[in-house]
Amino acid sequence: MATYIVRRLISAVFTFFLVSLVSFLVIQLPPGDIVSNWVRQQEAASGQPLPPETIERLRRVYGFDEPVLVQYVKWIDGFPQGDFGFSIAYSNSEVAEIINRRVGLTLFLGFASLFLSWSLAIPFGIYAATRKNSRTDYVLSTLSFIGISVPDFLVAVIYLFIAVFVLKTDYAGGLFSMEFKNAPWTWERFLDFLSHLPVPFLILGLGGMAGTFRLMRANLLDVLDQQYIEAARAKGLREMVVIYKHAARIAINPLISRLGLQLPALFSGTVIISIVLDLPTLGPPFIRALQRQDMYLAGTVLMILAVTLLVGNFLADILLAISDPRIQIE
Amino acid sequence: MSDLTARQPTRSVLRGLFGASVSRRAISEDEYRLLSVRELMLRKFLRNRMATWCAVLLVFIYLMILFAGFFAPYSARDADSKLTFSPPVTVRFLDPETGIFHIQPFFYPLRGQRDPRTFQLIYEEDRSERIPIDFFIRGESWTALGFLKGDIHLFGPRGYEERLHVLGSDQRGRDLLSRIIFGGQVSLSVGIFGVLITIVLGSVLGTLSGYYGGAFDHVMQRAIEAIRSFPQLPLWMALAAAIPPQWPPEWVYAGIVVVLAFINWTGLAREVRGMVLSLKERDFVHAAEATGSSTARIVRRHMIPNMASHIIVTATLAVPVTILGESALSFLGIGVRPPMVSWGLLLNDAIRIQNIVLYPWTLFPGIFILVTVIAYNFLGDGLRDMADPFAR
Questions:
Q1: Best mutation site among A18, A40, A157 for testing chain B: the one with the most B CBs within 10 Å?
Q2: What are phi and psi of A130, to 5 degrees?
Q3: Which of the listed residues A266, B87, B263, B326 has the most CB atoms within 10 Å of its CB?
Q4: Chain B residue with minimum CA distance to A277
Q5: From B259, which residue of chain A is nearest by alpha-carbon distance?
Q6: ipTM of the complex
Q7: Does A210 touch chain B (CB under 8 A)?
Q8: Is B121 within 8 Å of B94 (Cβ atoms)?
Q9: Do B231 and A264 touch (CB under 8 A)?
Q10: Would you list the DSSP string of B127-172?
Q11: Residue B330, CB half-sphere, CA atoms under 13 Å: how many?
């Protein structure tokens, strides 16, 4: 087991470098760089062109006159010190600082809604599979089929519509009321936060639920066809024991390996829903950075999202190795 | 009854779908025979009613966008500054004053008035005049498919004085329904072109990778891994943002198509590679090699036909993903740019919660996205059944 984990870790580190390189290349893609953008802004503001020497000096200071690979090495060289570059969209503040403030909430929302979607989808999946072709099964399957078709951003918009016109709530986006937006954490702020939570929570959770439900139902149906289930029934075990102890346990395994795929979808979902609902996660700064070619910020967010996927896959593999004794670790 | 021998099978399925009057090649009532694979596949597909109806629906949607000029009452840019953000008009058959039923639908034009306190435009029906809605009416001239010209529209208001916004209008007073129909041209063609690129890239690179293996395969697999280690949407967003803002809209459109295909092909390439790897070891391929067939011939004659159905299913399911990708990007304002119209771009009007509250009809484009995507998913479902006609 230990060697397996070490081997997986080494390959994860390799992938991390690959991911950071791709992130860097992607943010290098737009023509021009952060300095030329800044220069454009300055020139537009002052109405007169900056002297070319100033521009040259700026480029040298930021290292933009060097080859791309050198810039890349410099960029990742700062990681151990928590230096991810700087952002112009957020008035020259450190990328690390902007991200620090938001990454916790992004992770929290992502994992919490994952938990919500699993804890609903698995029981529903078991229920539908054990009552195959019943009316409930049919309804749940159809709903989930529609569910996997509906993209997150539409769910967010549709939910807002329902919240406003059907439920007549006064939810106006965000995770905090105006007065608590930039306040330090207090009990009142926490309560305010809790009261804002259900909407983004439900939207995110429901998005992942449909897929998980379908997988759980299909897996369980496969497992229930196996001979050892018949054997378990023949032994005279109670149906509950057969289903929960013998069938469901096995049927969950593919879900765990899917976890690695589900996490990135969830984080993508968090990003785009945050933009619609104006949640203080990594979403809004990401889109703002992209629109203004604020490359360090955009690249770092992109990389962080990829790293969550990496970590998710890593954890999923190890969880699977633990939960399924049939998996051989050489 | 097994699937191989069946008694007038296709017929009964077709009869179930379209009623009894389906004629087919003459086959006597009680003839037993083997069905060809093609017939089996059709039968399998038609048995999935949802998929069949969704195919019909999609054909209708595509016809609608191909002949957008005919189906849309106005052009996408025809604006009326007097009717900004006007709500959908009520199409009526009953005269609310007299209670008389009219066989021809009509509407009352909307008149906007500023609320003295909030300065918001409030629209009210002007009941003084009934405007009938005519069908096959002459209006703005249009061109379809590049060469068909006409000026007949499916429907429109009688006379030129009043405008008919069945689904309301946007902030510049442009007809939302017309914009949705024209926007469909962009939204749906992105799906088609994106998937075409996906198929070509995915199957060519996947085949090469699987067939030759070695260093090429190794490089391909690492590249695919690198792309796939990013969550799809954020990578799309980052790549779409790299499209220079000064490009003309048509280039941006092409750029978006390429960006969307750039991630999608990796999945297909992997699947194709896997299939090629397993096909390579099959007896018929060994036999072809032994009899001296060229590699190109083996791929063309023995591998592609075996993979075709799988590729078609994957492609069908990739279309809605691509459509959604474009919608999400345009919705966020980093996709196609005005004056181009797409469903996602139209939905961008609804990105602010106050717009949803004040102008809920800006959500209509979302319904079109939803219906199309769900229809494609059901269609893909049916095609998947069809791809394996011998499965029970």
A1: A157
A2: -80, -15
A3: B326
A4: B353
A5: A26
A6: 0.79
A7: no
A8: no
A9: yes
A10: TT--EEEEEEEEEEEEEETTTEEEEEEEEEESSSSS---TT-B-TT
A11: 34
